[in-house]
Amino acid sequence: MSSSTDLRSRRRGDYPFHLTYRTRWSDNDMYAHLNNSVYGHLFDSIINAYLITRCGLHPPTSPRIFLAVSTTAAFFAPVAFPAVVDLGLRVTKLGTSSVTYEVGVFEEGADEVRCVGGFVHVCVEKGTRRTAEGGMGDGVREGLRPLLVVAKGGKRAKL
Asked: Angle at the Cα of 22 (from 18 to 25), degrees rounded to 5?
């Protein structure tokens, strides 16, 4: 993941795909802000919404699934109920069988990022949980390609 300063400078326009989430009272913890565990749900929701709606993944019947092998989160400002948040999604690395996602969390009406996090997913055969032969498949890779960002120096992230 990028440095804290780089992450803090993220804006909505840095993310090609967005999903809105209305926080719930139960999302807050005793400190009156979203519990850290809720962010994992948010990351999982936007990533899987994209895989299902844009990449043709259907978890109940797809022979290949994605497993999270790493998660990250950097927090910059709190979010609390009854906020509405805008989640932004981009891909920073796209391999044959793995993908690294970055998710930005923005409070509705604000351009400053509140949290930046994400997952590394590995595509596996559903039945064996072993890396899928042939990786994630061309259809999924092509579906993820619009989210792939250009790294500093003008080079595309890993393909």
From this structure: 150
Dist CA 132 CA 63 (whole Å): 9
Q: Let me know the angle formed at the C-alpha of 50 by 122 and 69, rounded to the nearest 5 degrees.
A: 20
Task: For residue 29, give the DSSP letter.
Answer: -
Cβ burial, residue 105 (10 Å; 0-12/13-18/19+): buried
Q: What is the CA radius of gyration of the chain?
A: 16
* Contact (CB, 8 A) for 66 and 140: no
Phi, psi at residue 69, to the nearest 5°?
-110, -10
Going from the first residue of the chain to its last (159 residues), give the mean pLDDT of each consecutive group of 10, the final group possibly shorter. 86 97 96 95 97 95 95 97 98 97 96 96 96 93 96 53
Which residues, 6 or more positions from 146, have their beta carbon under 8 angstroms from its beta carbon?
Answer: 16, 17, 54
> How much is the pTM?
0.92
CA distances from 143 to 63, 69, 94, 157 (A): 17, 21, 11, 16
